[in-house]
Write a structure and sequence with these properties.
heterodimer; A: five-stranded antiparallel beta sheet; globular; B: mainly beta; 10 strands; 0% helix; 46% strand
């Protein structure tokens, strides 16, 4: 099993603060995805990164794929209560994606 | 259908009973996946189906777990002689194909299983 470790596991911040979530592995992935999951729902895709060193921006969210394609980060600027949820990274292992351990984010108004 | 549909949404069962969880994938999606998620945790892969190929069962935790996919569409995950450690949310996902998928998986809302 190709393990993806996410840190921190839990994060509680005030509205307006910035934060970064990390996804690390000892394995190389051909692509990596980030999902957000809200309570009672399935995960929803946020972004796919493919090229080592790639940076993608989605409004206040910035995603980076490590040069060696073993790690990734998600940075949120000026967090809002609507950003609250479980953030999951997932690495492409050929026929399926292996999901990370998850980061539970709470943004306090 | 428009999305991935799972039923039931909640299931409470007594230890030792068998349960069946159902997944209706998006029409035309050839790949279907089952994952298990403990409270607030990441997803644990269970099994996936791709078209008419033999399923990848490598993630099933014990022989009490089995799954089938009829006609390349609906899938049923069966857990026999349920144990308390089987309590979790069981998520189903589908995609147009396996391999690199820019659009990602589409997940259902899951079945929350509680074994008492």
């Amino acid at each position: 099993t190709q393990l993806l470790e996410q840190s921190p596991q839990f994060l509680s911040i005030q509205e307006g603060e910035n934060l970064t979530v990390y996804c690390n592995s000892s394995s190389v992935f051909s692509s990596l995805q980030w999902y957000r999951q809200e309570p009672g729902e399935g995960p929803v895709l946020l972004v796919t990164v493919v090229t080592g060193g790639e940076v993608k921006k989605l409004k206040r969210l910035t995603f980076q794929f490590g040069d060696a394609r073993k790690d990734s980060s998600l940075h949120i600027t000026a967090a809002q209560p609507g950003d609250t949820g479980l953030y999951l990274c997932a690495g492409d292992a050929g026929n399926q994606f292996y999901f990370g351990t998850g980061t539970s984010l709470t943004v306090i108004p | 259908g428009a999305g991935v549909s799972q039923s039931p949404s909640n299931k409470v069962t007594e230890k030792g009973k068998d349960v069946e969880l159902r997944c209706d994938p998006i029409s035309g999606h050839t790949a279907l996946y089952w994952y298990r998620q403990s409270l607030g945790q990441g997803l644990e892969f269970l099994i996936y189906f791709q078209g008419n190929s033999a399923p990848d069962k490598s993630g099933l935790p014990s022989d009490r777990f089995s799954a089938e996919r009829t006609g390349g569409s609906v899938s049923t995950l069966t857990i026999q002689r349920t144990q308390q450690e089987d309590s979790a949310v069981y998520l189903c996902a589908s995609s147009p194909m396996t391999g690199f998928i820019t659009g990602g998986y589409t997940f259902g809302s899951g079945t929350r299983l509680t074994v008492v």
